[in-house]
Structures are given as structure tokens and as C-alpha cells.
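Re: [help] complex structure
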Amino acid sequence: MKVKELGEFGLISLLAKLVAKESQTAAEIAGDAGFRLLLGIGDDAAAWRNPPSTELFTTDTMVEGVHFVLERIGWRDLGWKIMAANYSDIAAMGGTPLYSIITLGLRDETSVEGIVDMYRGMLAVAGEYGGAIVGGDVVRSPTLFVTAALTGATEGGIMTRSAARPGDQVAVTGSLGSSAGGLRMILQGLSFRSEVASHLLEAHHRPRPRIAQARILKDIGVLAAMDISDGLVDDLSKICQASGVEGVVHAEKVPMSPLLEEAFPTDSLSLALGGGEDYELLLTAPDATMKKASHALDVPVSVIGEIISGEPGRVTALDKEGHAKHVPKRGWNHFG
Amino acid sequence: MKVKELGEFGLISLLAKLVAKESQTAAEIAGDAGFRLLLGIGDDAAAWRNPPSTELFTTDTMVEGVHFVLERIGWRDLGWKIMAANYSDIAAMGGTPLYSIITLGLRDETSVEGIVDMYRGMLAVAGEYGGAIVGGDVVRSPTLFVTAALTGATEGGIMTRSAARPGDQVAVTGSLGSSAGGLRMILQGLSFRSEVASHLLEAHHRPRPRIAQARILKDIGVLAAMDISDGLVDDLSKICQASGVEGVVHAEKVPMSPLLEEAFPTDSLSLALGGGEDYELLLTAPDATMKKASHALDVPVSVIGEIISGEPGRVTALDKEGHAKHVPKRGWNHFG
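Output below.
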């Protein structure tokens, strides 16, 4: 079978099963060294206990022509974006990003000045959010790609995808859809007044990982969270799958920037529901915890739906009249 | 400037300087979380203290057409080899490999059965040497590539590239050159009797990381070590560069398998001095420590040279008559 026939998530699920079946002994050996695995494949980051810390480990890759077009994003923003995406995965667990290792797959012709500029973008993330680049690997490759692997840590518990419970409210930080709006603007060569254009481009190229906010959420008792990278509905369905619950989203409650609505008056909601690369936090918690959350954070926390018992992984987006809305998939990474 | 003009090591050196200059604050922030960086860019793995552990972090990538030809190595051995190369980096520091995250850059047409088989090869390494695969990322890519990132740990100190001192002896574990012999056999389509052919192929496709041996070396006081991936002379020059010393190798003392010598009677020494991908340990230590080392290990420890004060990074390979030998570079990763 070809990868495009099975698809990304089918392949990941197949590999996760294989790993689970064959690696019990291996995990026990790691456990003997005092490192007890908490979370393997299937969350934003892997996690293990090394008392008093819980340590986190994640990675993210961007391939030219698949995840970015260099002439459009530019080297510096590419560096920012891949680091920010990684930092966002650690944030989603409630952790502090620590050490990064960068792998560069470069063509012979790749510009050295460009790579230096990309590193400046990466270092800007570390400068703003902590952590350091501590190593890497440079390899020759016919296709340009960049992989960042990142460790993180936290004391105490972590937020996971599997802790959503029926009765929880579903909320997101910030606003959604602007990153996807920025992508559409670029791909379709659209023009907007400068405030709109900068907002959309900034959202798409320079996402801001919600590290401090996620730590606060964890501290006030939020147990279920992830970051939104594949799109709100898609990502909520991952939480629901991992937690064995069903989710409902009330489309009119999904927070969007007025600038996004100005740019795409008819499509802004689709972009917010399915666009992806928002790198905002998606969380579920009981009403009382959610109230605390919206008071504690310096960014808006919008309750947009609820968790119910039902079909695991199923998410329905309802319009104001209570009709289910179709949410198109973004499909960055979809094979075939 | 293009990458091919600056070269791999020039680029790494440039990026290391940039990171050192710009990331002091970032490293301090990580330090505030209780993780004190010991080693950043420039050794086999990054290392930081998280008492009582020293934690290690490394990565390795293999790109189709650059580092492997799938039809030659086969999926399972590819999985073994990339994991073994990573494990060898952690071994070189005296550490225990713990958790791996795998990034797969896949074409639409890539075979799912092949990937499953590659994972079996990876899991075989974890099964034999400990550790576990805990996560990953699957991305679409026009060029097939596999990246493994690996954490490790050790209690107490680590072995580094910067601890070689004048007067130290230089030694290697096992025998060298067979992996490069295997590569040449494949590339040139050579035929040998089956014992020779299997030895060379096994050396090239299924290297054995010297994890237990490295831990013993560390425990008996060896301070300077790395694993041989780019070739003996090239890698010794990295130790000498990092330590500010010069190295001498006595070519006739370099250990080689009789099977390699049978296959390449005139070229075996070149393969052993410059071939690479041996994944044996290269270490330097005073005479007394080296004596203990050769008694303590279950594989041969061959003293092949010495460290002198002189030009930092310079390594001379001498033949029996004391003449300097030219050692050709392997150039896997060399751009241009």
C-alpha cells in the first residue's frame, strides 16, 4: 500500500500500534534508568517523569513546496515559524521550552545568508520565550527542509489530549482563522488595506506560542489542552478521540479578528473553524475552572462549545439555528 | 554565498558562532528552570545538568540518494542504521539512550509496508539497547528522509571531544574500515566469498553502537571520546580541534578485520583511516587509564597513536617508515 492510500493519520495510528506492541521491554529499560514514560505517540509532545521534573519532547518539520514557499515567507519568518510551532507544542502541555536541535536539509545552492537569517528568526523565539539552540545536523538534500526537535520541562502535572470529560466547556485563546486568511491572501495574490494585510501576514508567518498562558491554565487546574495547528474542528476531534468523548462547537461563538472578517466577509468562519496554524490553545474544563481561566489570562478566553458523552472523536459545528455546518479540511499534509 | 561554497563545516561553525553570540540570555532563562547547559553545538550530543542526571540530546538524518539508496540498504536495515547512529552519539558521551522521536519525510508513493519494516529495524535497536520511540512527525516531501532525535542520560560526568591532552594515547574499539568496504562493494558491484560479503554488508548496514563499552570507559576515567562516523583521521582531528592539540596516528596499528584485508588488499588501510560510518569509539587517555580500558572491555581496544602539543586540529597518519600518508576524505555530506 502507498502512503497516499493510507493517509497521514492512518499511518501514524499503524506505527503507534506497532511501537506499543513491540516496545514494552524497551520502555522498561528506560524506566530502570529512573525515567518513567507518561505519554508516547499521540499527544502534542512525549512526556516522562524524571523527578522532580516532568520532561517533554517534540519535533516539527517544514518542507519547501509542501509547508512553505521560500519566496513568500522569507528566511527569517520561516525560522520564527518553525520554532514557534515547536514551542507551541510544549506550551500545549503546560511546559517550559528548553533546548532545541535543528536539522537542516540543504541543497548545494541554498543561500548561506538565508540560513543565517533563518537562525536569527529562530533565535528571536528563544530570546523572547526562553530556551536555547544546542545542536544540529546539516545534511545535503535535493529538497530543502528544516526540522526542529525541542525538549521542555515542567514541575507537577501536564495538560493532555485525553482529559476532556462530558460536561466540560470547550474554549480557545485569542482569535482564530487569521493565519489561514494570511495563507489564502498569499496563495490567491489578494490585496487588502495595509492594517488588514499586516494582521493576516503576521498571523500566518509569526504565530505567538501561548507559553505563559498555558502555564497559568495548568496551574488553575485545566487538564485537557492542545494547540491548534490543523484547524479547530480537526484538533478538537483529536481531543475527543483521545478522551473518548464527543464535542460540539457553536460556530457563532468562535472568536475572529474584525480584520479577518473584513478581508473575508463570507469565508472568515470557515477559516476559523478549519483553517489551522493558529497556534492558539484549545482547552476543555468544567465551568468553574473556565471562569477562573478567563480572568487569569492576558488574552481572551472564549467558550465556544461543550463536551458531551457520545461518539468518541466526533465533533459537530452548529450554526445559530442549530444546523450542522460542514467544515472543509485544510489538507496541508494530506497525501495523494 | 551558496552552501556548496562554504561547505558543511564552515556553515556549522558560522551558525555556532551566531548562536553563541545571540543566545546568552536564552540559555540563562533555561538555567533559571534548573537546567544548566554543559555542551551546546560541537560535540556528539548536547548536554545539560538536571541533577542528579546529566541529560543528552542528539539527532541524525538520512536522505535518500545522499545517505542511502533504498533498493540497496532495504527498509529494515535503514531503520536499524539511523537508530544505531543516534545511539552511538549518546554512547560517545558515556550515556544511556532513552527516548526517540522519529520524523518521516515521505513521498505520496512511499510504501507503507516499507515504513513498517523500517520501524521494526528501529525497534530492534531499542529492544537490544534500551530506550523507546515516543513520538514523531509525518510530513509530505518530494525527497524521502528520516530524522531521529534522541535523548539520553547519565549520572556524573560525560566524555567530550575537548578533553584530549598532550601525552594521551589514542585508541579505538573494534576494527575499522569494514563499513566503508561494504559501501564500496555495493557501489562498485563487487563480489566476494560469502563470509567476506556478509561481514562487509553487516558492518555497513547494521553498525553496533558501543553503549555498554562507553559507559565502562567513562567509569574507569576516560574523559575524551567520540564515535567514528566521518572517518578515523577526520574525527580525530575534531577531537584535536576541540581540545587544542595535535594528533598522530600510526597507520600500521589501526585495527582491521582480516576479511576487509582479504577483500581490499591494497585499499583496506585507506578505508580504515578515512572510510567512516564505523560507529566504533575513538578515545584518548593517559597510558594507565588506557591499560585499564583494554582489560575492562569485551571488544578489542587498540592503541593507534598519541596526542601531542602542536597545531590544534592537525592529525598526521604515519606509515611504518614514519612518512605521512595522505588520507582521502569520504565526503558523504560534502556539498558541491
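Chain B touches chain A through 90 residues (CB under 8 Å).
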